[in-house]
Amino acid sequence: MEGREMIPRYTRKAMEGIWTLESKYGKWLEVEIAACEAWAEMGEIPQEALNVIREKAGFDAERIDEIEVTVKHDVIAFLTSVSEHVGPEARYIHKGLTSSDILDTALALLMRDAADIIINDIKTLLDILKEQAYRHREIPCMGRSHGIHAEPMTFGLKFALWHEDMKRNLERMKRAKDVISAGKLSGAVGTFSNIPPQIEEMVLSRLGLKPEPVATQVVQRDRHAEYLSTLAIVAACIEKIAVEIRHLQRTEVLEAEEPFAVGQKGSSAMPHKRNPVGSENLSGLARIVRSNSIAALENIPLWHERDISHSSVERIIIPDSTILVDYMLDRLKGIIEGLQVYPERMKANMMRSFGLYNSQRVMLALTEKGLSREDAYSLVQRNAMKSWQEERDFQTLLRQDPEVTKHLSAEELDTLFELSYYLRNVDYIFKRVFENA
After folding, report:
1. What are the tens digits of pLDDT across the range 151-201?
2. Which residues pair with 187 in a beta bridge?
């Protein structure tokens, strides 16, 4: 038995902190102050007023909620609270802007911060997958297609495959971060009617964002949909791993299983149970992230230059999806690190199909002796079906079939049944996966 016991250790503090009201309002204020600084550079706001704004600008989240009950507008409630902190100089705040200038630009900052956390999560998972791939590189196991024995592989190749998946996810998240890193300060319907383009350029440069070339009143929602779709792909890849672990942990297979902590209980009724609850949890959460991506796609078409049908949706799907994917990656790391691996069970399971996984090699060897592929296939399949039905060793049946032995000697059959043949290119695959990782 390999692996070590691990327990979930996720705290969610970093990611959840991004989506608090204080964090959101803080980003709003950051954008507003940056706009005031740009106006001041252009001589449109007195330096003295800017100094007061920088010194006194603040907000009270509870006060914002209180004001919003009356005004029914979150940005107005926010600006009112800021004004109460700043005083008369607050008249320069939000100059020439519309609500979406602040909302969308600040949202880009929040989503960018969330992307950074997820990118770091993936990088950590990549290290763990690589370590496990090399640890199990030479452990033979049965490869399966349709859930049925196919041909041998090594257990390390499973981790190498997942590593390659996550490398692509890393690049996807980097692209999604770049796509979402766009803001706008172009006013109502995006025509810069009450704010010059230079203000937008200065503010977004300060914030490390790029401008939305044609913004209408909002940053276009295909950007957000791409980001949420990327999270859905990451979640689906996590589920891919989780489903494999769930299958491997089945009693009839039991080639690997999740870590089972000291004191952990698997069932309220059956004390013997050790269930893949972590992987099942990941499968379930992936469904939520995928469904959220559909909602993001439906946010793309808005009425004319904007409506706010997207707003209520995004307040749920963006925090939820980023928090969930962060959690899923962290939980998966614990499962992979502590995965219990059973090489002897893998070896025993390989024997359960009576050596039938060598059928392709025998068929090809017969074609090399001059048989047509159709005749070779029929000859091998006839013996393979007998092996299945009678639960007899495949090689023994081949040795007893005169139509086989007139083409293949006993020594040739022995060679065709050598396990090392199937594993001879594993190092080549590892080199392709990890050489530039």
Report:
1. 999 999 999 999 999 999 999 999 999 999 999 999 999 999 999 999 999
2. none
Superfamily of domain 356-416: Fumarase/aspartase (C-terminal domain) (1.10.40.30)
What does pLDDT average to over the chain? Answer: 94
Start-end of CATH 1.20.200.10 domains in the chain: 97-257+273-347
The separation between CA 133 and the C-alpha centre of its own chain, rounded to angstroms, equals 19
- The answer to whether 83 is a known catalytic residue is no
pLDDT of amino acid 73: 95
Is 146 in the active site?
yes
In the chain, list all ranges with CATH 1.10.40.30: 356-416
Task: State mean pLDDT over 324-343.
Answer: 97
What distances in angstroms separate CA 120 from CA 6, 222, 290, one per listed residue? 21, 24, 21
Given a cut of 90, is residue 207 above it in pLDDT? yes
Point out the catalytic residue in the list 73, 193, 205, 267: 267
Kindly report the CA angle at 96 between 184 and 67, in degrees rounded to 5?
95
- CATH code of the region 97-257+273-347: 1.20.200.10
Q: Which of 146, 272, 312, 420 is catalytic?
A: 146
